[in-house]
Amino acid sequence: MTPPRFSHREILATTAGLAIAMLLAMLDNMIVAPALPTILGDLGGLNHLAWVTTGYILASTVATPIWGKLGDLLGRRITFITSIAIFLAGSALCGMSQNMAELVGFRALQGLGAGGLMVGVMAVLAEIVPPRERGKYQGVMMAVMPAAMIGGPLVGGFITDNLNWRWAFYVNLPLGVIALAVCWFTLAKLPRGTGKARIDWTGSALLTTWITALVLITSWGGTEYDWSSPQILGLTALTVAAFIAFVVVERRAAEPIMPLTVFRNRNFTLAGTLSFIVGFAMFGGMTFLPQFQQFVQGASATNSGLLLMPMMVSMMVTSLAGGQLISRTGRYRALPIVGTVLMAAGLALFATMGTDTSKTVTALYMVVLGLGMGCLMQTTMLIAQNSAPLRDIGAATGAATFLRNMGGSLGVSILGSIYAHTLTASITSNAGPAAAASGGDSTARMTPELLRSLPEAARHLFQQAVTDGVGAVFTWAAIVAAAGLLVALAIRHVPLRGFAAATEQPQDADDTPAEATVAATA
């Protein structure tokens, strides 16, 4: 397939439209995060904390490879714009939610659209910019992420403190309309699909089944049900059976939703695995930091957003610098190694926090974590895309994004269970089973405002429990991130390709230097 040729001006205009769409997807979670304590206090249910985020991430995880493949078959423009429309519909419905069940369901609808936004941005870039030049443009896209992470909590905190938490979702609508208009015009030059798409519905259904069952196991095991209960054992059997059937179907499908052939490439598999680890540690760990900032450090929802700025600024700087470095030198292998070390170190530092940890110390920890994430986010995607032929770039981008989102989904659900269990165990240990049982409902509905009204002894008890829970979350996140160093060290340098080489099957890490050099200069 011959890629469309865009001038530098056209690339800049298209990048602007993609940046708005990326901002739309990233702002949502960041705006909602500071509002979560208030939302849970209003609608109730500590046990549903993880699902407000997990429902979104799970849906986007399932949808990501589907959107990627649909883009390959139907064309990027129509699928990308459709995903924006679905995201906006979900946002409006989330703002109208009357209970936690509705909110979780509508967050899932949002996630379906968000999956198309994330994979669409990267797939469109892959179609208009060759890998050798893609680093600096992906650096801009990755810089949008920390910009959203800085602005999102500020907007979300302001809305929570001064308006109503429902506006955390309604605020997506005007930005979404702008994104729709810009993308409609800037993506017009992209080629259309053949109109003869063969959708792998069986593979899609099996993918949805085993992912959902797996997340339910990690969310319910040891909390809602015993690990040896019929429910958990049944979900385990369903996960295994659906996964095996999925592999069999994908190997035989004419147009598989997730081509398994991309995993034959060593670097693609390693980059995908590292993406999974990054998602697990980043999404899983950072979801619970606002709990510590608001309940223990006494920050308002707005200030908890401001307190994230050191991490976001360091992530933005590293992402932009890393993209420029890759484009100028063509070298990238050191970035995932350094990034993994810094990410694990940052998470480990967060695990040492206590009730007396100052905001200044927390900010220093954030800088370390932000530097690590900035080295990893765009580099893992670039390595994955460089390991796939252009005809499968959407599916490959979808698979890599899927693995990162899958890591995030499992991270939030697993670490959410650890957080809730540790928090409850801490209260039981310090206050006694009777007091913990009598205060269970109030604990589930605890808000920062309610906490401030409690007697000092009760307030300290809950703050210690939150600290214990957050500490356990970051300890496990750091362990998972440290395991990523082994994966990063195994990645081999393969020269980044031009468009001519991108249309062919890419060279694997084991190819000879001469062959790789030809591919790089094509």
From TrEMBL:
Sorted UniProt keywords: Cell membrane, Membrane, Transmembrane, Transmembrane helix, Transport
Bilayer-crossing regions: 12-36, 48-68, 80-98, 104-128, 140-159, 165-187, 199-220, 232-249, 270-289, 301-322, 334-351, 363-384, 469-491
Signal peptide residues on this chain, from the entry's feature table: none
Similarity section: Belongs to the major facilitator superfamily. TCR/Tet family.
Major facilitator superfamily (MFS) profile domain segment(s): 14-495
Organism placement in taxonomy: Bacteria, Bacillati, Actinomycetota, Actinomycetes, Micromonosporales
Protein name: EmrB/QacA subfamily drug resistance transporter
Subcellular location: Cell membrane
Gene Ontology cellular component list: plasma membrane
UniProt feature coiled coil, ranges: none
Record CDD domains: MFS_Azr1_MDR_like
InterPro entries xref list: EmrB-like (IPR004638), MFS (IPR011701), MFS_dom (IPR020846), MFS_trans_sf (IPR036259)
Molecular-function GO terms, alphabetical: transmembrane transporter activity
Membrane topology: Multi-pass membrane protein
Entries under Pfam families matching the protein: MFS_1
